[in-house]
Design the sequence.
């Protein structure tokens, strides 16, 4: 960890678990939260995950568990790990896994980002953690952050192993890839669909795999981006909390799946308790505000705004992460 221009920069090489967040574990100690790197198979792919166990964990006892789904482009060592570790402090066994085709998990080509895969990754985390020593499979919760939040809405509407659901800074990947951020690219939908179709044809024919969303920008280019989410996102993923497994890119052919999908489809099927958290100043807030009223199947639901927070700031700014955890932990304690 180093300090550059009054901003803390985390270095994965200086953490034995390559974690890049404030307060990250550097070793396992008796009586404290411990981290356990694990791997398991999901549809033939090796999935890399971290399990966090609570203080004084005893596998002979039973504990509630929480699955944590990471943001688009993120990995388990970033904000997903921060929330998983902090929830473990509150007595939960938690798991954060890299999505298939991403991070340290298997799958080729790299950086495929299809909703079906991401939703199945969430089911796969549930498969694994419900058989982990000490976990009570009847007390399983789900936390989805950013894109992981959209995919968690989709997973929980049919997977009733999840008894409670929280989203943080929910990002509807389908809507954004289809319509553009803040619905700013409605006039180019057909053009982009043709590009994605051509990319798939090239990929299947054995040609170069084309990618979208990957850019190594200068500080000036980052500062010129039109939205807080992207300006702060590039700072987070490329500067302050960079991780070698984390990238913004995804295969262009993934857009064929993303652009026909929507995180809010049929979310009236969610009958579990639902807590949706977002920053009051987030320019992504419109996605949470759109989804929340559509979840008509649950009578136990709350939309909570973290005053003053923007999207990426809910990933790491201590004031805002603690505000989020102060809502999440009692919610999961009550519902699990």
Sequence:
């Amino acid at each position: 960890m180093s300090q550059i221009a009054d901003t803390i920069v985390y270095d994965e090489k200086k953490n034995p678990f390559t974690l890049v967040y404030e307060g990250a574990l550097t070793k396992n100690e008796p009586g404290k939260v411990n981290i356990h790197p694990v791997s398991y198979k999901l549809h033939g792919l090796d999935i890399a995950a971290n399990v966090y166990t609570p203080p004084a964990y005893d596998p002979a006892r039973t504990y509630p568990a929480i699955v944590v789904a990471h943001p688009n482009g993120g990995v388990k060592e970033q904000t997903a790990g921060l929330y998983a570790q902090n929830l473990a402090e509150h007595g939960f066994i938690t798991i954060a896994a890299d999505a298939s085709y991403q991070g340290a998990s298997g799958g080729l080509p790299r950086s495929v980002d299809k909703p079906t895969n991401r939703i199945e990754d969430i089911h796969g985390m549930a498969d694994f953690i419900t058989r982990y020593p000490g976990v009570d499979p009847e007390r399983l919760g789900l936390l989805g952050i950013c894109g992981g939040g959209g995919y968690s809405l989709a997973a929980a509407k049919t997977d009733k192993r999840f008894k409670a659901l929280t989203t943080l800074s929910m990002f509807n990947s389908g809507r954004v890839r289809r319509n553009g951020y803040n619905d700013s690219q409605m006039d180019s939908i057909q053009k982009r669909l043709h590009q994605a179709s051509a990319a798939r044809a090239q990929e299947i024919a054995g040609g170069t795999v084309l990618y979208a969303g990957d850019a190594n920008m200068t500080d000036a280019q980052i500062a010129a981006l039109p939205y807080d989410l992207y300006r702060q996102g590039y700072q987070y993923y490329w500067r302050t909390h960079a991780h070698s497994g984390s990238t913004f890119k995804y295969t262009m052919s993934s857009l064929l799946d993303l652009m026909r999908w929507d995180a809010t489809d049929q979310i009236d099927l969610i009958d579990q308790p639902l807590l949706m958290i977002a920053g009051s100043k987030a320019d992504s807030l419109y996605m949470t505000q759109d989804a929340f009223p559509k979840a008509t199947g649950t009578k136990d639901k709350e939309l909570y705004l973290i005053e003053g927070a923007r999207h990426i700031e809910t990933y790491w700014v201590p004031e805002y992460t603690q505000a989020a955890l102060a809502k999440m932990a009692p919610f999961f304690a009550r519902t699990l």
About this structure: DSSP finds eleven helices and twelve strands in the chain. The CA atoms of residues 123 and 159 lie 8 Å apart.
